[in-house]
Amino acid sequence: MVVVGQAADADEALALAAATEADVCILDLGIAGGGPDLVAQIRELRPRLRILVFTMQRPEQMALKVLSLGAAGFLGKSCPPEEIPVAVRAVAAGRRYVSEQVAAILADRVVGGGPDEAHQRLSVRELEVFNRLARGQGPSEIAEALGVSVKSVSTYRSRVLAKMGVERNADLTRYALEHGLLD
User: Rounded to an integer, what distance in angstroms lies between the CA atom of residue 120 and that of residue 115?
Assistant: First the structure.
């Protein structure tokens, strides 16, 4: 394996994906400007590039979303270090790779045995807004980070509150803490 580059933010990741002929991209969703949509953007630039998402975000919150957006694999940063090269090789060979924990979560969802929690019904963008609201970010800050208008953030906030069945941002923070959704 040869590392051909490293990106500090989403813009650098997109530029690197466009400029290199790498086989695998290990993508941390936590990079500046990152998030699940970055998977789709990279796939649009380089459809054959295999993306392994490597993140601190909880798998029950993010795995299905990034896999449906085109990621070839998903690993949590809490995985054993020896699992990383195994995942990279599997993804490079054209297979999908998820840890045992993620496989169990996905299996539960497929057969309907997993919990149907309110946050799992949110769209990718709604989940991003939910996470930022739960962390105490204001509408202007969220709008700037996501590259949308403050009015759009307000619309997403209304949808999130309705889907979550709560009335205030403080309720979102409490929910996120109770469900272990905050890092």
Answer: 9
Is the same domain home to 52 and 95?
A: yes
CA of 49: how far to CAs of 27, 62, 71, 98, 171, in Å? 12, 20, 9, 17, 40
What's the number of domains the chain is made of?
2
pLDDT in tens, 108-167: 666 655 556 778 778 888 888 999 999 999 999 999 988 899 999 999 999 999 888 888
Is the domain of 107 the same as that of 148?
no
Question: Is residue 17 domain-shared with residue 93, that is, in the same domain?
Answer: yes
pLDDT digits (tens, 9 = 90+) for 27-78: 998 888 888 889 999 999 999 999 999 887 767 668 888 888 899 999 888 7
How many alpha carbons lie under 13 Å from residue 61 in its C-beta half-sphere?
21
Rg (CA), the chain: 17
- Claim: this prediction has a pTM higher than 0.85: no
Return the CATH number at 21: 3.40.50.2300
